[in-house]
Each structure stands twice: as structure tokens, then as C-alpha cells.
Predict the structure.
Amino acid sequence: MVLNNIEKLLEKYNNAETTLKEEAQLRAYFESDTVAPHLEQYKPLFKYFSKSQEEQYTKDVPLKPKKTIRLYQWISVAAVTVLMLGLMIPRIMGPTEEEKEEALLAYNQTMEALSLVSLGINEGKEQLGALTLVGENLDQGMAGVSRLDEFTKAKNRIFKNK
Amino acid sequence: MKQAEFVSLVMPFKDKVFRLAKRLLVSREEAEDATQEILLKLWNNKAKIEEYKNVEAFSMTMTKNFCLDRLKSRQAQNLKIVHSNYTDGNASLQRQLEVRDSMDWVSRIIEDLPEQQKIIVQLRDIEQYEYAEISKMLDMNETAIRVALSRARKTIREKLTNTHRYGIK
């Protein structure tokens, strides 16, 4: 009776008409020790099926690397931002109040020093007036000398004529 | 979605993905690589995952497509050595040794099936999915699946019966 049933199931099985339940029944039958001799050839098949189910994937899947790459990306973004801020901030903020005061002080001091120098230059200029006087006398002297030249020419002529 | 959440979502079917990949790619290393690739793809698209109703079916479809692509590019790259016309009448000793390892035989018989049938046998007989689920995964109607499965099971039966007889001889 059981054997008859199994044979029917096998027929259905080969026509791909069995349900999962019936296939489980077949598997159970062929795993038992009471397999009819003329069905012996099916034994390895069902044994193979149940054995194949046990095979497992044991390798680890490296899901993390992707994450660390993302972290590096963010670090580089942060680094660039810091660099840009370092360049931009001094420009935007400009000089502080203290720096402005210092600059004004330096300006005033320079102006004072320069006005002192210009005062000295004016004094020197007055003294230069005396020098121009000397220059004028020198010109008069030169005129005298040119008269002397005339005299010498006249004297030479007289001596030649003699 | 956090990593722990993702792992608990993927955990129930990652072995199934691996087994399907191994069924198609045969080598364990390649199947491991493929599984890793698929899990990483899922992880990278984890934002979209929540929209899918059935992540498992979606992953199985992805696995199928990925492995078939792999096989295609492998065929394009490598020269295959096939002994399709290789017959040896005196191979009884070798055969007997092979019969002893009958499980190995079953796996080899399945390996010889066309890809489509391989996938269906894997999904139905090993992973025990309902026909409705398989039809979703493979984008085929149930009747076509039943036909392909029946063909595959009959091929397996025939080859097993032959092997069995040789074994007895």
C-alpha cells in the first residue's frame, strides 16, 4: 500500500505535479531504510537534495569599507572648509580698533617729524641768501676782469705798432 | 537602514543565494565571490530595498542574472574543452568508482542539465520554493516551469537508472 502510494507520487513527481508536501513525503521515504529495491536508484537523488540544503555561505561580507570611504570624504570637506575660513576671515573682519589707533599714532608721529625737517630746510634757505650775494659780487668781479682783457688787447696793439 | 538590520534581513536567504550561485558557477570560490557581489549590491541599494515587497525573490533573480552573465563572459573569454563525442566502452572500473560516490553522480547529472532547468531544480527540489515564487523569480509562467522541471526530473531519473544498472552489473 505504502509502496503503491510512493510509486504514484514518483510518477507525479516526474511530471512536476507534486506539491511541496508530497515532495517532503518522498524525501522522507527515501531517507528511511525501507526503500524498495526497484526504487533504489532514487535514493542518492533525494539524499543529495537534502544534503545540498545544508551548504552554507560562510564568508564575511565586508560591508564596512564603504562607510570609511564616506568618512574620509567628509574629513576632506571639513579640511577644505577650515582652510577657506582661515583665508577669508581676516579679509572680512578687517583691522581692529586697536590697530587703527596704532596706525593713526604712527601717522601723526611721521607728520610731526616731517614738519620739523621742513622747518630746518626753511632756515637753511635764508642762509642761502648770503651765498647769492657772494655770487653777485663774483659776477661784478668777472666784469672787471673782462675790462682788464680789453686793456691788454689795446696794450698789445700799441706794442706791435712800435 | 543600519548594518545590523541589513544583516538580519539578508541572513535567511544568503545561503540560498550562495547555493544557486554554486549550482550555476560550479566552483565554490566563484560562487562565494558572486554571493559577496550580490550582497554588496543589495547593501549599496539598501535605500531602495525597503520598497521591494519580496527582497528574497528579488535577490534570487539578481543572483540568477548575475551568474548567467558571468557564465556568458566566461564562455567568451575561455576556450572550453568538451568531451561531447568521447565514448569509452571499457570504463567500467571508473564507472564503478563513480557509482560508489553516487551523490557526486547526482551533482554531475544536474550539472549537465541546461541552465534553465538547473535553476528550476535548484529552486524547487533543493530550496523548496512554491511554483508561484519561482515564477516570480524567473519571470516565467508556472506551466512553463512545470514543463521544464518535469523534463529535468525525467532526465535525471533516466541517467540515474542507467548508472544504477551499470552499478549492479
